[in-house]
Specification:
This protein is an alpha/beta fold. It has twelve helices and 18 strands. The strands form four sheets. Strands 1, 2, 3, 4, 5, 15, 16, 17 and 18 form a nine-stranded mixed β-sheet that branches. A four-stranded parallel β-sheet has the order 9-12-13-14. GO terms for molecular function: hydrolase activity, acting on carbon-nitrogen (but not peptide) bonds.
């Protein structure tokens, strides 16, 4: 009997933290805590979560761990709000039949692309199989598998006869009139999409084809009636101008294909219209290198860096995003290196990952900061990115709603 009890105790003590329900509570102790961009860190701090919310944050002399609560020793780690990736795709074949992928396999796939990079929120910016994406989201939201809160635009659309050359042989929906735009956007949003995406100018392989301005205006006006954001893929100069004039809310990329820097007037116009920018700098480096072209000093790369740097310097709103899922290499390290090269500092990068997207998508009251009453969406890093932005990619733990959904090594726990 004694042997049996010891075996059972050994079994239960070895259970993963990811199997611990969020409502049981978890205390995170000993980390350096960055509660928000621009706020001095708390060293050796404590964060207590319960029921999916943060219920206390502070120094040990001010915050006491409740008796019998599980404790995760975070000594030497850096704690901040869970990250947002505002440009992802679940289009690779491995995501097909999401409703029936075995749990272990699906967890591995989500860990590889999302959870191991600290993302607790993602925005999917193109789904070619919307029901499949919803099936994936449902399995995550039910708690069956571990993953992020997911927003989606569903299927995006392009100008007539202008599906991007890089999605061939697939063709995206083509919209050529304002009436078609109103009908398409209305249908998408009534089906549950969280936003709309269009190509304000699309590269067909021979030329860049602009979307008719009246179509963009009709799509934007319709989406705004539903209080939903409009994303645009600008491609080059023409697409940038059309997006601004058409009432688009967010650029899904910079627009370096024309190799032309953004002028002060263009930057001012973007800011005046409150347009947010998702840079996806790694995308351009990845595209060049997979064609065996050296990215350093290539005009595509230098233009992309200039455009981000100019908008950030002017105080424009930047949202982190990598285009992962189209980009098949999942590491985020390169994006942080390139953002730093473009001139963004620690607080600016942290803002793109946390408070800026939370505010842009209407969640600032409960997401994006480490504070009492906020969602218990947390990332723990192995080193401090304040000294080196590459450490934003060094994930030790990802926590969503108070539940550990990823850990890079076995947890150190106490009771």
């Amino acid at each position: 009997m004694k042997t049996l009890l010891l075996a059972l105790l050994t079994l239960f003590s070895g259970l993963s933290y990811a199997q611990t329900p969020a409502n049981t509570g978890l205390a995170l102790t000993g980390a350096r805590i960055y509660t928000a961009p621009g706020v001095a860190p708390i060293d050796n701090g404590i964060v207590i979560t319960q029921g999916g919310k943060i219920i206390a944050v502070g120094e040990p002399k001010r915050v006491k761990v409740p008796p019998h609560m599980k404790v995760l020793d975070c000594t030497g780690l850096v704690l901040m709000a869970g990250f947002w990736n505002n440009h992802v795709h679940f289009m690779e074949p491995k995501w097909n039949h999401a409703e029936s992928i075995p749990v272990a396999q699906l967890n591995d796939q989500l860990d590889s692309m999302i959870n191991s990079h600290g993302f607790t929120h993602v925005f999917d910016l193109a789904s070619l199989n919307y029901p499949n994406l919803l099936a994936l989201r449902d399995r995550i939201n039910s708690g069956e598998v571990n993953g992020p809160a997911m927003l989606t635009v569903g299927m995006p659309f392009v100008p007539p006869d202008a599906s991007p050359f890089y999605v061939r042989p697939l063709k995206l929906p083509e919209i050529g009139t304002p009436e078609e735009a109103v009908a398409y956007v209305t249908k998408q949003l009534q089906a549950g999409a969280d936003g709309v995406k269009l190509w304000s100018a699309s590269p067909d392989g021979q030329k860049v084809v602009p979307m008719p301005l009246e179509v963009i205006k009709a799509a934007s006006a319709t989406a705004h009636k539903f209080h939903k954001p409009v994303f645009a893929h600008p491609t080059a100069d023409t697409g940038l101008t059309m997006a601004i004039e058409g009432g688009v809310d967010i650029l899904a990329h910079v627009s370096p294909d024309g190799y032309r820097s953004w002028t002060n007037d263009e930057v001012a116009l973007l800011k005046q219209h409150h347009v947010a920018l998702i840079p996806t700098l790694k995308l351009y480096k990845w595209e060049l290198e997979r064609k065996n072209i050296v990215a350093a000093d290539n005009p595509l790369m230098t233009t992309a860096l200039q455009q981000l740097g100019a908008y950030s310097k002017a105080g424009g709103e930047i949202l982190f995003g990598t285009d992962v899922g189209y980009v098949s290499e999942y590491s985020t390290t390169e994006e942080f290196i390139l953002m730093t090269q473009a001139g963004l500092n620690f607080d600016q990068i942290l803002t793109t990952l946390t408070t800026a997207p939370a505010k842009r998508f209407g969640m600032a009251s409960h997401s994006g900061r480490i504070a009492k009453g906020m969602d218990a969406d947390i990332v723990l890093l192995k080193a401090d990115p304040h000294t080196d932005s590459r450490h934003f990619a060094d994930i030790a733990y990802t926590i969503r709603n108070g539940k550990i959904i990823y850990q890079s090594a076995p947890a150190t726990s106490k009771h």
